Amino acid sequence: MRQNPAETLRRVLPKVREVLHVAGVEMQLTAAVSFLTILQEESVSIHTYAHAFLQVILLHLEHRDAGVSNAWLETLLSVIEVLPKETLRHEILNPLVSKAQLSQTVQSRLVSCKILGKLTNKFDAHAIKREILPLVKSLCQDVEYEVRSCMCRQLENIAQGIGTELTKSVVLPELIELSRDESSSVRLAAFETLVNLLDVFDADDRSQTILPLVKSFCEKSFKADESILISLSFHLGKLCHGLYGIFTPDQHLRFLEFYKKLCTLGLQQENGHNENQIPPQILEQEKKYISVRKNCAYNFPAMIVFVDPKNFHMELYSTFFCLCHDPEVPVRYTIAICFYEVSKLLNSGVYLIHKELITLLQDESLEVLDALIDHLPEILELMSTGGESSVQENKLSSLPDLIPALTAAEQRAAASLKWRTHEKLLQKYACLPHIISSDQIYYRFLQRMFTIMMTNNVLPVQKAASRTLCVFLRYNRKQEQRHEVIQKLIEQLGQGKSYWNRLRFLDTCEFIIEIFSKSFFCKYFFLPAIELTHDPVANVRMKLCCLLPKVKSTLKIPADKHLLQQLEMCVRKLLCQEKDKDVLAIVKRTVLELDRMEMSMDAFQKKFYEKDLLDQEKEREELLLMEMEQLEKEKQQNDGRPMSDKTFEKKRRDTKTPTTLPKNIPISVPGPSGTSTPSTSKEVKKSKLIRSQSFNNQAFHAKYGNLDKCPSKSSTAGYTPSVSGLGKTSVISLTDDSFRTRNASSTPTSFSPSPSLPSTSRTGSSVDPKSSGSKDTQPRKATLKSRKSNP
């Protein structure tokens, strides 16, 4: 049909028709799917399709095999969607009158019910009333309960096609009658259809007709089959929402008590029997009870709305507690999925469910943990910021078990074989800088990330730990700790004995380029990265070659001319000395890519404007973190007491400063000339502290999620130029110069790198690049000497 539809219809289709009369189940199923594919691909026009295929489909609708019959029915229902009205009337609706008669088989009448439900969307209300509704009424009164149930489930589609008035006068009476049917499956179908049509009926119909039916159904449900309870528990949230506003206080309380009873259904029947000794019917009943409680957990957010979040503690907290501690995993899994919705609804009352969060984090089932961590950052943010000021003030003390629970959850995930859960959890931990203090992250989580990177055997888990560690480093507020982490990365990974660790170092470098500013990467990681061009393992050199374009994109000319020269020298050595043919092939491709790259300049360039602004913002945030640490130290010395994290968090929230400032807004700092008076200096420091405190909240409030947008930007050849021409005034623009080496007299302590760290600080354009290069790279040469002597 794709290649030659005309000849296929003329020569092949007749043969297919002949074979289908005697074909087996597999061929029938294949033909049904094939006919549907031809329709979906629009291989022929609708008119041609109807002429060639419609009669074949109709012919096999009543195949003796139920699976085959359903396959042809699905194809027909899809065809009905696109057929013109006249074709539907003559080819499908008219024959349906005879097919729906009691004289026809049950299967034929069941097929007629489903076709009628589909046809109502294709005709106007007048035609439906005249031609379709008589058939619908007839099938609703059918002698077979399967037919009545099937037709009842199609009444929702029919109601949508005939409008509100006809629904009230025709569909509602049928539903009322079917809700009193002798068959439980018919009553259940009527109940579910009524719930789905609640929006169609007005308040009078709901209060006078539907509410009594629902009450009767709920009262009889415990005496009936448990399958009715399963359906009732699933639709209870929608039911309470649809009938909200027409309940009397007594009815409201009854429905709430009914829900609470369903939440604990089956838990009271404790027995000490071995599972093998329990009769099969009791086991089957317990499975149904588990399904009921699972559905109650699914509807819990709707029930919070039903009782009003203000009444949660009094009305629903005990029920929530039971669901979180339910003995069955499916129930706890479902409530873990709903936990974020519950947190949002409670808003200022979210502190009420702190203990349940810890309980689910400590759950023995990893399925429950996996469901909870999908929205863990949002939940923790609500926990830490939701509520009144008193709650905010004590946000860390109100969750004393949070950090142990998080670490225990990670260790359980690490000890299991479910590495995807472990990877997801490590990715979500990137939100922690916004939740707990920098010191808590440093002492409780950061070393664990190192351990995972060094010892875990699953590559995606190692990469997730590496990226999260980079986020922790990005928002660490102590320079000494930052330098220690950087040194560990370089010594234990970049210069590690295992080639696997050196590969992970290159992954980390890629994350550093993505998350940090270009200046930061060049200062600490540029030389350790390109040093791996001398690595004895081909895989490491190969990976480095693939990374080189990103490494080059961090350079700016002329400030980084000396680094560019070192990069070019390493590439030349690879071209001349590389013996591995695979590495050499990648080197040659990389050289071509490096040659095509345009270098970023210190001045803004139009083509890189957005990327330059992004990088400038990163540099500004890094600078403010350094300033904040320095000013906190000075404040502690002046006041004689340390600033607690609690106090700092409160001040940080109280200060509102936009995250993104226009690049032409100057930021006051003590000028290098040292001419500022003491009083002016104090004012300047005070303003810097306020701005720094504000930044630490606002910068991360864009959330670590902003970092996910960076790869596409930082991996290209976009650069952030610095604004040249620092004057003698004490006002500078926050640009790339933030990380450049100053004179010793003008450099704040927060800028001075650790003596043990290799550093390639950038110099201003007024300094000779050659002299600055030799000066800055001198410490690095000392550390590289031993490795270069034994390549």
From TrEMBL:
Major site of localization recorded for this protein: cytoplasm
Top-rank lineage group of the source organism: Eukaryota
Listed GO CC annotations: cytosol; protein serine/threonine phosphatase complex
Skewed-composition ranges (Basic and acidic residues): 632-656
Biased composition (Polar residues): 712-723
Subcellular location: Cytoplasm
Keywords linked to the UniProt accession: Coiled coil, Cytoplasm, Phosphoprotein, Repeat
Segments of this protein annotated with the region Disordered: 632-687, 705-727, 739-791
Residue stretches of biased makeup (Basic residues): 782-791
GO molecular function, one term: protein phosphatase regulator activity
Annotated Low complexity bias: 670-681, 745-766
HEAT repeats: 132-169, 171-209
Keyword hit for Phosphoprotein: yes
Free-text function comment from the UniProt entry: Putative regulatory subunit of serine/threonine-protein phosphatase 4.
Subunit-level organization: Serine/threonine-protein phosphatase 4 (PP4) occurs in different assemblies of the catalytic and one or more regulatory subunits. Component of the PP4 complex PPP4C-PPP4R4.
Identification of the protein by name: Serine/threonine-protein phosphatase 4 regulatory subunit 4
Gene name for this UniProt entry: PPP4R4
